[in-house]
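Lab manual, section 2.4: Encoding a predicted structure.

Procedure: take the sequence of the chain (335 residues), apply the prediction step described in section 2.3, and record the output as structure tokens. A sample record is shown.
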Amino acid sequence: MPQPGATSRILVTGGAGFIGSHFVRSLFSGAYPGLAGSRVTVLDKLTYAGNPANLDPVRDQPGFAFVEGDITDAGLVDSLLADHDAVVHFAAESHVDRSITGAADFVVTNVVGTQTLLDAAHRREIGPFVHVSTDEVYGSIAEGSWPETDPLAPNSPYSASKASSDLIALAYHRTHGLDVRVTRCSNNYGPYQFPEKVIPLFITNLLDGGKVPLYGDGLNIRDWLHVDDHCQGIALVLEKGRAGEVYNIGGGTEITNKELTDRLLSACGATWDSVDYVEDRKGHDRRYSVDWRKINAELGYEPRHDFESGLAETVAWYRDNRAWWEPLKQRAGLA
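Recorded output:
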């Protein structure tokens, strides 16, 4: 099967979303020399979280194409993969709270959609197939960090759907020899993130002088990963990763939600009077922490963005780009 290189034709699913669009913009900006000259087709359903404006900076690039469509559409997926030799699969329903109130879309998109892509990739002998997943599939960890060999123990419908898709993807490697490579990242942040996720939700609410909700005692711990570092890791896995392997991608900054809230209040010039303590989320995992020594040792991955400056730059981006996020919040009923 072809390896990524100057003549690669890459299908990027979910490429109009937060992480996928960053990957595409970075690729065309020359951030991934090993992928220089690649043709890229973005396949995106443009659900509430998919925004065509995220791709405006690359829309006129030679080699870029956009297709609006659903990864569960077997005919469409098969026809697209006939003209590609690699897949980077970002497309997913990803908001935990939404999965708690309604899990059906998560199962259809994350499980059935992934299986539909894998079927077509197998028929068309496509590879590599990079399946982008999450550390939430591991569950919750009181101390230490998860290596890639730890068993999966998801607690939310969202993380269960992603764990299911991970297992199906790896099964296609073991059964059919498909060149599948799985990445599992910690919590992402950065510009262009849909404002239902905690960091952009808090920033945009605070910039508007509003309140922010803090779940439970606020002591849940997350490892924060800048989207640019995450996409750097994905590019390395696409270029040099091994078939059938899982690679954790972490950011190296573990803080409680309460500490995160304090930093955002300070950055936005607000006080704790802006915080509403709310009932804890059902099945709220207490702590996430991935061991990313494998991708560091094998592929040379290293986070380049320290959290303090990365968060300050993110706050500044939302402050300067109201025209991007205000319509999104209004349409999603978040305003």
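Check your result against the sample. The chain has a mean pLDDT of 94.
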